Amino acid sequence: MSAATARRRGVLALPWIWLGLFVAAPFVIVLAISLSSAGYGSPPIDFFIGWQNGHPTFNINLDSFELLASDQLYIRGFLNSIAIAGLTTLLCLLVGYPMAYVMARAPARLQPLLVMLVILPFWTSSLIRVYAWIGILKENGLLNGLLLHLGLISQPLVILNTPIAVQIGMVYAYLPFLVLPLYATLQKLDWTLLEAAADLGAKPWSAFFRVTLPLSWPGTLAGALLVFVPASGEYLIPELLGSSTLPMISTVLWTEFFGNRDWPMASLIAVMLLLVLAIPLLFLRGGQATAGRV
Amino acid sequence: MAPLIRLEGLTKRFGETVAADDVTLDILEGELFGLLGASGSGKTTLLRLLGGFETPTAGRVLIDGVDVTALPPYERPTNMVFQSYALFPHMTVAANIAFGLKQARMPKPEADARVEEVMELVKLTELGKRKPSELSGGQRQRVALARALVLRPKVLLLDEPLSALDKKLREHTQFELMRLQRELGITFVIVTHDQDEAMAMCSRIAVMDMGKVIETGTPRAIYERPQCRFVADFIGGANIIDAEPVGPSRVRLPALGVECAVTDSLPAKGWVALRPERISLSHEAPAGGPWPAGQVEAVAFHGDFQLYRVRMDGGVELRVAASNVPGDPKPGERAFLSWPADAPVALSR
């Protein structure tokens, strides 16, 4: 093996080492905790592999698995999370696609500015920005004040601590993750293709559905997954803007971990959440492979 | 016969630039009409105005007697072959060609038959399932052509259709386009910057410069009897020589110190155009003189002819294209120039 080959392999190994140390190893630990029993020490678990009298002992505890399957709380948490994340993705698509489209068709000199405006909110802590929404949405907040002032409503609307507030916060927070990859895809689109479609008899909407949409599919899919995956595990926004009647799975996890100090259950939820999110990621890989063939 | 296409005072401004300047033009049915000009002359803008991709600042476009000025591309009886071909990369060749038929909601069996037929016409039969990225430049061009022709437009617009092809394929495709046009009887309007291409293919040519149509005519008329200096110079690079009238169809060329016959009488001071290939070169003064003489400055070998640059005694430089010149004048040698009586074309503008 030449030095160059060795160096190349060394470089290629780096991401794998990184993944192994910071993704695979923590996951294995979490998985191991989910199979252990809750205890009273610190950390509050009795690890399922032990060592006694010169022999390894195994004490696998599947209570958490039974509880997860039997208690509606967890299933509902998962379903809530997926529903809210799904709705967030859909709303982000409805708002974000036109945004990305307009950005991509804007004059070239304006485009860097528009991208900048989309990225700008990231310069402030997301916690601060969610708090700002409390100020907007609360009963005597900015939104109600404005609507009352305009005479559109006579009673302040109750928005804060409802699912609507969560949805507003989620769409607000995740919109850039959809807009940016979609903009990058649309920006590369050859607009002559739309002229060609029009020339062949396609009205603007028809040209959009037959040419623009299929060609922007990779960016749409990437953006949708970048919204859906982290949105499913979102904790901060439902905690600050939502109510306790519709807990998302991340809230349940937090309660198990810090409230009940049931680490095995919390770990099991984390593992299940990862599995739920890994499935759409596999779809993304499939989608990219398809896009690569276009 | 009423013209199929009529442009009336068509003007298009982009900010300060006037891309089409008060263009009035008739194109007849069944013509292979060429819009010829250098880049920036407005020929592509004119084509895009015809296709509906630009809205004119002023003027009207009539196709088959119908005012289409306000109609978008999808409502015009025109189809376009784009310079970049603009094939849909996510569709197969067959789907690209069927795009317009599907848009018109033609029943599938009928559409399939039409696609089949047009693919045969442009010799693409084997390639229906390929994607555009898997085709050569020439094949892509034929897909673009088929995609437009399958809709049987009244007018086919072609924007520099041969510019992306190599020289050999270009000549072949020229003949293919002429064959298609003849077989289908569809009116072709073709934009090109290549005068040889326009000459070879078109039934009529409009020469454009700075957004204006300078001159319209058959290739032969434009070549042999240009009406102005720009066209004489642009087509085939004629020598333009100052001239003053001395009698009916006769001028004096002060720079050369000779008098000669011209095609038309000049009303006042003007110019004559003298094509390089109509001038003869000789060591001895030919009969019927006096003929002007000069010194050969350079000779370029072009295969079927040689191009001479001759510095005349009066100081002007003339270009002479000749083959088999007796005595084979070399750079530095003196030579006489002579031409047949019908060679000099009188130009008053």
What does this structure look like?
- The complex is a heterodimer of chains A (294) and B (349).
- With 294 residues, chain A is mainly alpha-helical.
- Chain A has helices at 3-34, 63-70, 72-105, 111-119, 126-137, 142-150, 163-187, 192-199, 204-215, 217-232, 236-241, 249-259, 263-293, and strands at 37-38, 45-46, 49-52, 55-58.
- The longest helix of chain A is centred in the first third of the chain and has 34 residues, at 72-105.
- Chain A is globular, with a radius of gyration of 24 Å.
- Chain A starts with a helix and ends with a helix.
- The mean pLDDT of chain A is 88.
- Chain B folds into two domains: 5-224, 3-Layer(aba) Sandwich (Rossmann fold); 239-347, OB fold (Dihydrolipoamide Acetyltransferase, E2P) (Beta Barrel), CATH 2.40.50.140.
- Chain B is built from eight helices and 20 strands.
- A six-stranded mixed beta sheet of chain B has the order 6-7-8-3-9-10, with helices on both faces. Chain B has a five-stranded antiparallel beta sheet with strand order 13-12-11-14-20. Chain B has a five-stranded antiparallel beta sheet with strand order 15-19-16-17-18, with no helix packed on it.
- In chain B, helix 2 packs parallel to helix 4 and helix 3 (108-121) packs across helix 4 (137-149).
- At the A-B interface, helix 8 and helix 9 of A face strand 6 and helix 2 of B.
Q: Which terms summarize this structure?
A:
heterodimer, A: MetI-like fold, two-stranded antiparallel ribbon, two-stranded antiparallel sheet, 13 helices, B: 349 residues, alpha+beta, Rossmann fold, OB fold (Dihydrolipoamide Acetyltransferase, E2P), 5-stranded antiparallel sheet, 34% strand
